[in-house]
Amino acid sequence: MHWACEKAGVLEDIMALEQGSGKWQRTGLEVRIGDTGVASMPTSLLQRLNLARGYLKRAPIMLFDEPGNGLDFEGDQAFKGLSPSRFAGG
In the 8-state DSSP scheme, what is residue 84? Predict the structure, then answer.
């Protein structure tokens, strides 16, 4: 899992996540995301998480609907640089 997250450029962001406190505190890969977890995450982080999921599953094809949607120019270029192959269209 660390390999996929690192390859997608999201490992440092994941390891910085915190949720809860005291006995119930979760950090890093233990943080729950989704309906019952972290409520709001930047679009760039969500897209890199999806890319990590694709790497983890060793998906032969990854489709992204408007991969640059919600990203600034630098974020869009960084995301495209992390992709396993070129993006079509543009």
Answer: S
Helical axes 43-57 vs 73-82, angle rounded to 10°: 0
* Amino acid in the structure at residue 80: K
What predicted TM-score, i.e. pTM, was given to this entire model?
0.66
Token pair, residue 27, equals: 């950090």
CA distances from 62 to 47, 49, 52, 53 (A): 12, 13, 11, 10
Task: Find where tokens 């019952």 sit.
Answer: 36
**Residue where the block lists tokens 């930047």:** 42
pLDDT, one tens digit per residue, over 34-46 is: 766 555 677 778 8
With b for 16 or more beta-carbon neighbours within 10 A and e for fewer, the 58-80 pattern comes to eeeeeeeeebbeebeeebbeebe
